[in-house]
Amino acid sequence: MAKWGQGDPRWIVEEREDGTNVNNWHWTERDATSWSKGKLRELLVGIVVENEAGRCEIGELKQVEGEASCSSRKGKLIFFYEWNIKLGWKGTTKESSAKHKGLIEIPNLSEENEVDDTEVNVSKKKGDGDLLKDLMKTAGTAKVREALGEYLKALKTEFTTGMILPTKAVASQELTVKRKLSENTLQVQASSPVALGVRIPTVAVHMTELFDTTVDQLYSIFTVKDLVQKFSKSPAILEAEKGGRFQMFDGNITGEYIELLTNRKIIMKWRCRNWPEEHYATVALSFVPTLGRTELQLDCKGVPVCKEENMRSCWQKQHFEEIKGLLQPTTLSG
Question: Which helix or strand (DSSP H or E) is residue 132 part of?
Fold first, then answer.
């Protein structure tokens, strides 16, 4: 057994204030499946190719099956991804203005193959329009592979931000740089402060829920302090006006109102206490009357990837279900 201080230096745990897996020497893994589906849709849908024969566009992501993840071991990142993708394309010939539809299938996008070697199959519904099919087989396939390459690049850069943690020495260097930047900013007295910090991978969350109440009643539940305290079962701070602040659930949820359109829409800066410091998502609540009830549409952008499920659970259990309980006649009148 090695004497104290003489062990393999790779296993010596350096002091870090956050007490985190130093240098990521031990195995860590992050699920990239949900993030990947959103990124593939963003990059593939909307691709357009055109020549003298006509114009084609990928208008739909019909299927994206598979999974993706990124693991860190001994300071190195290891990627796994395997996707079966189906896209719908449509095109119009210039000569006759005839419209045609078809499919693009990518049966095996994985780390086992280079993007240029990835199989891309183009098909078309029966009938004329082979010139458009040829256009998709050539220029269309090239653009699809280019988009897949962009996805892999983002997976290995944008998604992995923060997975390899700095050592104590590197962290000290970063702190020194940040201090110098801060000092320079104060000296120059810039009108807008320098934004320091790490960009984190995020996802968008969309949820809808029906409530047996009127639009104005549901809107009030999100903007009247007493009603917020009733459904949250905790003290709240609420300034329901543009630029106003709010705090709920014993300070676990905080934010700011960006816009309020009475009985129509609320837009907020929104964060949970356990999110990375100073990181906010944008939450938009739309109130839609429908057949005597009200549909609440939640659109949230900027949710940290690792907090997506928590975010969904927070809104479903702590907001939607509790509000429905509050809307019971005996509860609301009490």
Answer: helix 130-135
In angstroms, rounded to a whole number, what is the distance separating the alpha carbons of residues 81 and 30?
A: 12
**Is residue 14 predicted with pLDDT exceeding 80?**
no
14 φ, ψ (degrees, to nearest 5): -75, 155
**Please, is 137 exposed, middle or buried when counting C-beta atoms within 10 Å of its C-beta (0-12, 13-18, 19+)?**
middle
- Calculate ∠ Cα 43-49-50, nearest 5°: 160
Q: How confident is the model at residue 263 (pLDDT cuts 50, 70, 90)?
A: very high
What is the 3-class SS of 158-225, one letter each residue?
Answer: CCCCCCCCCCHHHHHHHHHHHHHHHHHHHHHCCCCCCCCCCCCCEEEEEEEEEECCCHHHHHHHHHCH
Residue 251 pairs in a beta bridge with none
What pLDDT sits at residue 12? 41
Q: Strand, coil or helix: what is 133?
A: helix
Helices (H), 224-292: 225-232
- 20, 165 contact by CB (below 8 A): yes
Cα separation of 317 and 311, whole Å? Answer: 10
DSSP code of residue 26: S
What's the CA gap between 48 and 8, in Å, rounded? 56
CA separation (Å) from 322 to 147, 316, 332, 334? Answer: 43, 9, 12, 15
Residue 200 is predicted with a pLDDT of: 75
Q: What is the pLDDT of residues 71-127, one digit of tens each?
A: 776 667 788 899 999 999 999 998 888 899 999 999 999 888 888 888 999 999 877
Inter-residue long-range contacts of 225-230, CB under 8 Å, 24+ positions, other chains counted: 227/326, 230/326, 230/331
pTM of the model: 0.46
